[in-house]
Every structure is written in structure tokens, then in C-alpha cells.
Amino acid sequence: MILLHARDRRTILVYAPWLAMSLANMGGSHPITSVYSVLILTPLFLLALPKYRELPPKLRGTFWAAVAFALVFATLVDLASAYMLAKFSPLVGASRSGGLFLVRSDAWWMRFFPLPFDKGSLIHGTHIDTAYLELQLNMPLLFTAGLAAALARVRRSSPLAPFLAGAAVAFPVLAFFSLSTLPWHFVPKLLQLIQFPYRLISYCNLMLLAILLAALSAGREKLARKPGERTLIALVAVATLMFCGFAIKLVHVGATKTSKVAVGAPSDPSEQEVYKDFAFYAHYTLFGLPELKKAEVAASKWVELPLGGIGPEYGFIKPVSVSVPNGGWVRTSLAAFTWNKLFVDGKEVAPPALLVHGSRYAVKLAPGEHVLSASIVPDPTWLLLRSISFVTLALGTLLCFVSLFRGVSPARS
């Protein structure tokens, strides 16, 4: 983008949110969301470029350089996510931590569905006193996109100005529902369809498209070229990226603070409402889906393996002591995923003593007291591709910020 120098400028604010939101998707959202976001944002980026025929001959080479940069950038950004989906999609849609969401629940159309369907929550009701502390990570960056368009001074006569106004109203509303469960006590059960399993991703994707359209529209308006405004938007972008990292920390802190060992929890989803512990509910919500009722084992107990969220315990799964006087099956909170290994008394468990109950591992224990522990060993190829993706995003974001401070922006069509 820095390569594009033309006589008339188009605001760099069109591209800053694109880079920032891609970074947020890679840093904290599902790979499936990251893939779709980049597939959507890359064509929007290409459409925002100056028209090739209107460029002077000496600038046409830089035009193709910018196109190549966008395509290579998008490819490198999505390497890790594409690899995960290609390798594991027959079983799961992988989340950022190597956990999983069932394919039936994470279908592509669900990413854009206005009301994410949480059948378990609708049937059993919600008895949660503590909100899940994960503000959807691309929401603050959507706000950045809106601020970028606002600083570009979108005219009220612009046909896309209403999109920006609507997004500005939707942002605080969605943020409130994402962080608070208070409205659930005063509204019909239908409102429960908005919360937990998909964490407002569908709404955020709709907002993302709306704000980007407004930002693209802003790029065609007259930009107030004051250095202070360019500096401000760069600082806001940095601040929102830092907030995203903080939000990721909040997820693990919240999980640590609300998690309790729940031994003896019922295997029947209809009895779930008796247990008000949020960590238990969070893992149990999807068991209300009809597809999950054909479990391979009827686990008689439930064991929550606490996940460390802060300091040296970040990401560490703490061992749990379990007493099973008569022996039998114990269903754990460990997601049934290739990377996740379950240990009993220090020894890794393998089938037939290890089976899948719904989307979680269940282990058969002999009578007595045992220590359950787990470890996450990510795929080495995925780790390499993820490193490439993050390096690419870091370089792209750095170029974006450099161009902001230098006041360099692409040509205006």
C-alpha cells in the first residue's frame, strides 16, 4: 500500500481497519471466522484500489504490486487457519486454544445467521450469575473502523452513511449483552438465543461488513488531511489491538475464577439446570443438541479440569483428584481433540479406557482414588504456519502505521 503514490490521495483509513481486524481474527477468533473474514475483506481491499485504467502508465506497475501484496498477505495470514480446517474439519472446527466446536454447530452459514441457535439454552433455561468475560475480539476493532470512517467525515448524503450510524448504535448494545447477563432476568427466553455458544460472532460479522462499507464510502469523501487526525487513528488502532490481548487474558481469568470441580454431575442434560456453576454450564450447553444424545458411554461422573489463566499458570491444566469407590466411567471437561492428552496417575490413557462422550473425553477408572491431568501438544506444522501468519500480520500492521505517520495514502479514484 505504501507503494501506491498517485496525484490524488485516498485515505489510508480504508486499509488500517482491514489489517487490524485481520490481526484480531487471527489472535482471538475461530479459524473458520478468520478464513471467512479474510476472504471477504481481501476483495473489499481490491475494490478500494484506484481504477487501473485511470492511473498514469508509470504507476500501473505499483498497482499490480499492491494487488500481489494483498493476495500474498491474505494467503499467509490464513495459512494456519486453513491448515486446521483442512486437516481436522471432518471432526471439528478448531478454536484458538486447540479446543473444538462441533461442525454441526459451527457451520459456515451460522457465521452470518442473525440469531445463533442455542437449542440447549432455549430448552433448559439459563441460571448464570457471572457473565462469560469474553468480549468478541473483533468488536473493538470494528469500533476502530467506525472511528476511521468518522474521522474521514462521511457526509450525511453518502448512501452508506446509515450503515455507520447503525453500527455505532449496535456496538454498545452487543458489548453490553456480551458482558452482562442482567437482561436475561427481565426478557423472554428468546433473548438467550443471542448469548454464549457463538459469542455474537454472527452479529459482529454483520457489523464488520456494515462498518467496512461505511469506511470505504468514507475513502471516497474529502478527507481532512490534518497530521493530528492521522496520528490519533494510529494510536487508537494500537490501543484496540492491546485491548484484544487483554480480552484474551480475561477469558482465562474468568474461566479460572468461575471453574469448580464438579464430581457427580448428572449425565442427563435435562438435569443441567440444577447446577448453577457457570464453568459446568459452559461445557454442557451443547449437550442439548439432538445429534449429541447418542453418546458412546454413559458417564456417571463429571470432572472439571481447571485451566490456569494468569501468571506462570497461563494455559496450564491443573491435576484433579477423583475418588471413585466402585470404579466406572468419568466424563471430563477435556475436549476430544487430537492435541489433547489425558493422563491418569501420570500415565496417558488410550482406548478402550478412553472414549468420547459428546464432545469431551470420558475415561474408565478402577475403584479407588486417582489423579486426572491433561496436556495440550499442538500440531508442529500448525505452530509453524501460525508463526508465519503472525509475522505477516505484524509486518502488514507496521507498514500500515508507518504510512499513517508519514501521511502516505493510496490514490483516489
Structure description:
This protein has helices spanning about 15-30, 30-50, 60-75, 80-90, 120-125, 140-150, 160-180, 200-220, 225-260, 280-285, 380-405, and strands at about 90-95, 100, 300-305, 320-325, 330-335, 340-345, 345-350, 355, 360-365, 370-375. About 45% of the residues lie in helices and about 10% in strands. Strand 6 and strand 7 (about 345-350) form a beta hairpin. Helix 1 (about 15-30) packs antiparallel against helix 2 and helix 6 (about 140-150) packs antiparallel against helix 9. It is α+β, with helices and mostly antiparallel strands. It is built from 11 helices and 10 strands. It has 2 domains: about 10-255 and about 380-405, no CATH class; about 260-335 and about 340-375, no CATH class. The chain has a 4-stranded mixed β-sheet with strand order 3-5-9-8, with no helix packed on it.
Quick take:
The protein is of the alpha+beta class and 413 residues long. It is built from eleven helices and ten strands. Helix 1 (16-28) runs antiparallel to helix 11 (380-406) and helix 6 (139-151) packs antiparallel against helix 9.
Note the run of SSEs as H and E: HHHHEEHHHHHHEEEEEEEEH
Strand arrangement across the biggest beta sheet? 3-5-9-8
The portion of residues forming beta strands comes to 5-15%
Mean pLDDT: 55
Coarse structural class? alpha+beta
The helix content, as a percent range, equals: 40-55%
Rg, nearest Å:
24 Å
Biggest β-sheet, characterized? 4 strands, mixed
- Specify the overall morphology: elongated
Instruction: Please tally the β strands and state the result.
Output: 10
Distance between the termini: 15 Å
Number of domains in the coordinates? Answer: 2
What's the helix count? Answer: 11
Poorly predicted ranges (pLDDT <50, ≥5 residues)? Answer: 1-14, 24-29, 91-141, 188-210, 216-298, 308-315, 407-413
